Amino acid sequence: MSGPQRDRKLNSRPSGSRLMRQTWSHLLFMHWRIDEALLAPLLPRKLELDLHDGAAWIGLIPFSMRHVRPGFGPSIPGLSSFGEVNLRTYVTFRGEPGVWFLSLDASNPLAVWFARVAFHLPYFRASIRTSNDETRNQFSSRRSGRSGVPATFDAQWRPGAPLGRIKPGSLPWFLTERYRLFTSVNQEIRTAEIRHDPWPLREATLDRFESTLFEAAGLPAPSAPPVLHHSDELAVEVWPLRNPAQSARRSVLIEPEGAPKPV
Fold first, then answer.
1. Is the separation of the CB atoms in 138 and 156 below 8 Å?
2. Nearest to residue 262, comparing CAs of 2, 1, 12?
3. What is the value of pTM for the model shown?
């Protein structure tokens, strides 16, 4: 059984106040199978790799952040829109599935600082250029801050036909429907809950791709073609970082209206 099917929070909403709201646009999900032995040394010992049909997966996801704002309030000037590309894998902690980020490159210095302080995530400053229309998307990133190993990303892709409702337990569901992120604070695992509608996925065709983000994270660049999915846009809600046990106690069950609202 894949990770998200084990997640009891499919129809739950974290109690307490959400920390922020944001909109993710023009996403490309790029995924590859990866040898577990390559990833294991990069994870805290308390986390376990989440597998689909016996395989571990790693993803590169470029996208644009828009309308980034506090949980209750308007957008903050200078923080509301920027580009981001993240390198991530899928893990479980005490049976709960989530995302572990190996790196996140973003073009807004204030957003990078805030994410490092508030979520203890490996964010890096980057110079990012994007171009998007109905037929073609382009995304280029070059790490520009003093911290981190130099790294680049460049891709051009074309969105395809909508995939319709994604079946729970399928590979697209496993790779995209994630409800929380994990991070490490003083060698202790912490989690942040995220909620949104199910991903409106589309097929995608890759025209160009080059990246050194794998090598910067201490991994070999993949040689096989990636599994691709595109999504136009999705609104997201984010809760503050918490102790996982506290997060589980404070999650409130809600009755779903139609489809659940996951990460």
1. yes
2. 12
3. 0.89
